[in-house]
Amino acid sequence: MMSFTFTYTFILFRFFFFFCFIMSSPSCASMFAGNGTVDLEKNGDLFPQILRDEAVARLYELGKVSDASGYLERTFLSPASIRAIDVIRKWMEDAGLRTWVDQMGNVHGRVDGANANAEALLIGSHMDTVVDAGIFDGSLGIICAISALKVMHIDGMLQKLRRPVEVIAFSDEEGVRFQTTFLGSGAVAGILPATTLGVSDKRDVTIESIIKENSIEVTGESFLQLKYDPKSVWGYVEVHIEQGPVLEQVGFPLGVVKGIAGQTRLKVTVRGSQGHAGTVPMSMRQDPMAAAAELIVVMESLCKNPGKYLSYDDHCSSSMVDSLSSSLVCTVGEISTWPSASNVIPGQVTYTVDIRAIDDLGREAVIYELSKQIYQICDKRSVSCIIENKHDAGAVICDSELSSQLKSAAYSALKRMEGDIQDEVPTLMSGAGHDAMAMSHLTKVGMLFVRCRGGISHSPQEHVLDNDIWAAGLATLSFLENLQ
């Protein structure tokens, strides 16, 4: 009788604890509204408390970790990024992962699964931001991965994974501070030369010095050792907001990425004759600002109408021009002048050019034609021009096997959440660059896009619905559960 009483009391206690836990979540408490019951059969395996509520809370928490007081800015190894490292590492350990931080400030969380010697799945995204950023870019992919693994940890499934899984929060993807993208993922993929350590920011602080400032000793040899052995890696998967309007237009929360556009970043320096704004006649000026203005307008015209500028030959076909017409985008995002005074004709103007296209040969043809136009205009205006290639990344085609598995995972997640799904999970290209571009040099890659409101990104207006975050986490969980 005593044994029965104890067992019955224990069951009641567990039920009371579970009820309190459910009711502590606003979204879950709402399930009890109306008829006073909760459909555990429908929601019991969807883990909303972790994959939605906690994930959303963590996104907002990380969004407050900033170097600026009025907006989000977290660049490579800045004070805010060091605080973010501690927060992310704590979340990884909460999910049952073994953690460490490498010499480039990448945060790693790993579980060996059932076979520690098998090739590992790497999954993650970047924790750095642009200036005046949104809270979802990069961070969503990190938190979705951690949340999915936390569910598996709670269910006792981590050690049953067929292969090791490692979440990586990359220290730099945006390239804001040093104007060199993929510092984190590039080091892991082994595509960065040791000379990268000598690259400096606008204050002449080098990458090497900022690493040492954070009590991390790094040498050219140890930097190169950050590269993973390709034989130890099975693949790389990244969950990321779309940063475009397609998923919202088709009314789908998730989409599979089939490829990423190639990207080139140029730095153009125009030098002229500095002088007094009131005394130098217009006909005698060698004004780099006026020259830069013309160069930028010509760039815009070229990128809007590539067929008007490019010559057809063995290297430039009509199909290439058609591809460029639909995918080519060119942007001047930064301009600086010297000495930058309202009553002084500047002596120097520097601006950046960002060129992206799905077709690599087409992108190269555009760069060649743009460079030719720049030199001709500068010569005509009697100013000098220097064009520096600061970054070049070829287009990446995602692995068909990984894409198929991600598509199945997305379909499974949406079906579990919504019931019957009539439409197929969309497949789309990415015009934005991602860590997957760098990781493609190491292993096969796959990407899952998440719908964002208005396609807006790199802005405080960036927004993802809570239930879309839930869908992304559930899709990640489904992918891990069926990992081969």
TrEMBL record:
Its cofactor is Mn(2+). Its EC number is 3.5.3.9. Residues 262-374 form the Peptidase M20 dimerisation domain. It is an enzyme of class 3 (hydrolase). SUPFAM superfamilies: Bacterial exopeptidase dimerisation domain, Zn-dependent exopeptidases. GO terms for molecular function: allantoate deiminase activity; metal ion binding. It catalyses: allantoate + H2O + 2 H(+) = (S)-2-ureidoglycine + NH4(+) + CO2. GO terms for biological process: purine nucleobase metabolic process. It comes from the Eukaryota. It holds the Pfam family M20_dimer. InterPro entries: Amidase_Cbmase, ArgE/DapE_CS, Bact_exopeptidase_dim_dom, Peptidase_M20, Peptidase_M20_dimer. GO terms for cellular component: endoplasmic reticulum. Keywords: Endoplasmic reticulum, Hydrolase, Manganese, Metal-binding, Purine metabolism, Signal. Residues 1-29 form the signal peptide. CDD domains: M20_bAS. It is found in: Endoplasmic reticulum. Homodimer. Involved in the catabolism of purine nucleotides. Can use allantoate as substrate. The sequential activity of AAH, UGLYAH and UAH allows a complete purine breakdown without the intermediate generation of urea. Belongs to the peptidase M20A family. This is allantoate deiminase.
